[in-house]
Design brief:
The chain is α/β, with parallel strands linked by helices. It has one domain: Response regulator (Rossmann fold, 3-Layer(aba) Sandwich). Helix content is 37%, strand content 14%. The chain has 5 helices and 4 strands; from the N terminus they run E-H-E-H-E-H-E-H-H. The protein has a 4-stranded parallel sheet. Helix 1 crosses helix 4. The two termini are 28 Å apart.
């Protein structure tokens, strides 16, 4: 049995909603086995208010959350990532920085709740949270230390298609 803690980075373009939700969910569901981070290629500069509201209603922490650039995680001295997951199609199509340590990557695309306005916005945020939670639950249940790299990569890709 390993006591290793895995670093996971969730990427989205604006780092204001989906990647933030994923960061908070993994911190909770990972039960200390994972350290979660989030960033964006073009950060909005603020976390979406509906993301903060939803997290609060779910009893999940919001303190210290901020919209930040993925450059922070490619810089010298940044935490070395074991996994990098894109949660929006735009970020998946962009040329990402070179991540130190060559982490495993996968695309877990989720519809952008921040793009929904009006009455459906809160439902869109709830749907995004539930979709991310389902994927993260599958991820944290994987016997990561026991899987060969190719098998693990295949499982990560399957989670993204779930």
């Amino acid at each position: 049995m390993t006591d290793r803690v895995y670093n996971v980075l969730f990427l989205c373009t604006g780092n204001s909603a989906r990647s933030i939700l994923a960061e908070v969910l993994l911190e909770r569901l990972g039960q200390g086995r994972f350290r979660a981070f989030s960033a964006g290629s073009h950060p909005k500069g603020a976390v979406h208010p509906l993301a903060l509201e939803l997290l609060g209603k779910q009893g999940l922490p919001t303190e210290g959350l901020r919209s930040k650039s993925w450059d922070e995680f490619a810089a010298p001295g940044a935490p070395r990532m074991d996994f990098v997951f894109t949660v929006c199609d735009n970020a998946a199509a962009e040329v990402c920085p070179v991540w130190p340590g060559q982490p495993m990557t996968a695309h877990w695309g989720i519809q952008d709740p921040a793009a929904v306005t009006g009455e459906g916005a809160q439902r869109a945020f709830r749907n995004a949270l539930h979709a991310l939670e389902a994927r993260i639950r599958l991820f944290v249940s994987l016997p990561i230390a026991k899987l060969e790299a190719l098998t693990l990569q295949r499982r990560l890709d399957e989670i993204g298609r779930a």
